[in-house]
């Protein structure tokens, strides 16, 4: 996760005085949790995996391959998203052999004992480096096929600024041609698009027009999309469905979205309190089973497992964790 988030000002401005009313199902299954490692006081990798297991967390995202963490996951059944570092994409795009070496080192030794679900080719890439995403995905897919590895799907993790015209949600369209090409590849391979969705950053950027209730799945008014007659009761759903609309317009209808990050900081900045963070995260977990108005159930990963004391940027960046590094909970939470 980075400090600055893209968000459509048009979308934010249109959400005037909105609220939310949401019916929350009981007994939902667990969502995943992102395991960031940018801290000098975090537990051992084996202890972290045990913490996932003891809390019933069924899926994990890591941002770089980590041998110790992946070995600790052997035999647990915990689903895993493994990231490809942003700074090696140029090499992997230009050299299929480098992509094959990456797969040989970071996937082949661990499957099937580790349940690797997705490979995230970069995280929130912007600018000229976005041109590397498609060829890296193609090279990774070829390397997986050559190694006879099935069931592991290559995608990329994007932030919301890949979509423009996001209000109403049905107006969403990709802002750059590279995303259309990525979407069509995902349609061909059956992989989902990974999207980092943060109502928090939208809310603090436009508190005048976006209510806290609407941003945190709490009771209030509902907002119809005039183009579809779908009704939106929270900001998360509207943001996700704008990405679905962009996929449809790119000729990639049927591609699913995995929310690869979503969270709320508990300290360090505007509207960052333990109580609000708990409210958002618990409601997010409950809501994931219901899903958005357009596609239904959304596989979702909470950001993040721990407060990370070496994260750069605003102080909030160090305070997205559900747990302190000593493994005690920042706030009471039920992940199931």
From TrEMBL:
Protein's UniProt keywords contain Signal: yes
Listed GO MF terms: glucan endo-1,3-beta-D-glucosidase activity
The keyword Signal appears for this protein: yes
GO terms for biological process, alphabetical: carbohydrate metabolic process
Cleavable signal peptide: 1-30
Pfam families recorded: Glyco_hydro_17
Coiled-coil stretches noted in the UniProt entry, renumbered to this chain: none
UniProt entry keywords in alphabetical sequence: Glycosidase, Hydrolase, Signal
Family stated for the protein in its record: Belongs to the glycosyl hydrolase 17 family.
Protein name: Beta-1,3-glucanase
């Amino acid at each position: 996760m980075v400090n600055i988030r893209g968000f459509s000002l048009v979308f934010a401005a249109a959400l005037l005085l909105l609220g939310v009313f949401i019916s929350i199902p009981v007994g939902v299954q667990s969502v995943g949790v992102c395991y960031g490692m940018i801290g000098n006081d975090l537990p051992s990798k084996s202890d972290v995996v045990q913490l996932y297991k003891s809390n019933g967390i069924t899926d994990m995202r890591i941002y770089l391959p980590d041998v110790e963490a992946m070995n600790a996951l052997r035999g647990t059944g915990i689903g895993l998203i493994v990231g490809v570092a942003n700074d090696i994409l140029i090499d992997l795009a230009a050299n299929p052999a480098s992509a094959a070496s990456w797969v040989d080192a970071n996937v082949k030794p661990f499957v099937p004992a580790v349940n690797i679900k997705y490979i995230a080719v970069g995280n929130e890439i912007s600018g000229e480096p976005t041109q590397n995403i498609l060829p890296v995905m193609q090279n990774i897919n070829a390397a997986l096929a050559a190694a006879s590895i099935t069931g592991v799907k290559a995608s990329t993790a994007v932030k919301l600024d890949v979509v423009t015209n996001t209000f109403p949600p049905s107006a969403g369209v990709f802002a750059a041609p590279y995303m259309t090409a990525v979407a069509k590849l995902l349609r061909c391979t059956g992989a989902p698009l990974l999207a980092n969705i943060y109502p928090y950053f939208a809310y603090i950027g436009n508190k005048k027009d976006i209510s806290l209730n609407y941003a945190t799945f709490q009771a209030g008014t509902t907002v119809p999309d005039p183009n579809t007659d779908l009704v939106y009761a929270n900001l998360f759903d509207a943001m996700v469905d704008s990405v679905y609309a962009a996929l449809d317009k790119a000729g990639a209808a049927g591609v699913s979205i995995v929310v690869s990050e979503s969270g709320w900081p508990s300290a360090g900045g505007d509207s960052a309190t333990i109580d609000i963070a708990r409210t958002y995260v618990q409601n997010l977990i409950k809501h994931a089973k219901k899903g958005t108005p357009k596609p239904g159930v959304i596989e979702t990963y909470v950001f993040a497992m721990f407060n990370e004391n070496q994260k750069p940027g605003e102080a909030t960046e160090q305070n997205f964790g559900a747990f302190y590094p000593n493994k005690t909970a920042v706030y009471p939470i039920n992940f199931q």
